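So, can you check what follows?
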Amino acid sequence: MTRIAMWSGPRNLSTAMMRSWENRSDTEVLDEPLYAAYLQATGLDHPARDEIIAVGPADGDAAIAACLAAPSDAPISYQKHMAHHLYPGLDRSWIGEFRNCLLLRDPRRVLASYTKVRDAVSLTDIGIPQQIELVERCELVVDAADFLTDPTGYQIEICRTFGVPFDEAMMSWPAGPRASDGVWAPHWYASVEASTGFGPPPGDAVPDLPDHLTDLAAEAFEIYQDLRRDRLRVVSR
């Protein structure tokens, strides 16, 4: 069995990427298995917080055990993870049991989208410190803007790196929710539920941000530039 962990900050391609892998006949997906433990440990107020914790697992060790548990009989286990769910004190040693990829996005675009759902935001909320940590643990670093210029080419290379055959079924999927979606889906997944494939690359213009986010965005963007230095680059066919 191949176990893949795709790490991402919020408001990225992470859910569309999960849809892509779930559309394979040989893959079982797990949606943000650390979310409940993250909310329980940090006390943060997120949409559907109580429901997420109730569904669990809300204990960090139990959440990690769920990550490590073998899926039914699927040859590929694909886990969608949010970098910011790696809260202080949570064991990291298990990450090495997976083939890991870090999915990046320009944090200025992340902030513009994130603040539509939550007003308060910090670098930790969008997973920047955790991405600095994860980049050393990941075999691949993929920038969402690059990926969207050639989704097929990038998926072929991601599959090749992880030793699984590329499947054309990854490039489109039926619209709508999935039974595998977390209970938080109604608050975050509207766009991907309407999708049937990957969208176009972002335009050149960066969204305007309110003044109080200017310094935060500048700091995050500088770190992002460092994180993407050794990213995967695919020459479009």
About this structure: The beta strands are 2-8, 27-31, 76-82, 99-104, 140-143. DSSP finds eleven helices and five strands in the chain. The first helix runs from residue 14 to 22.
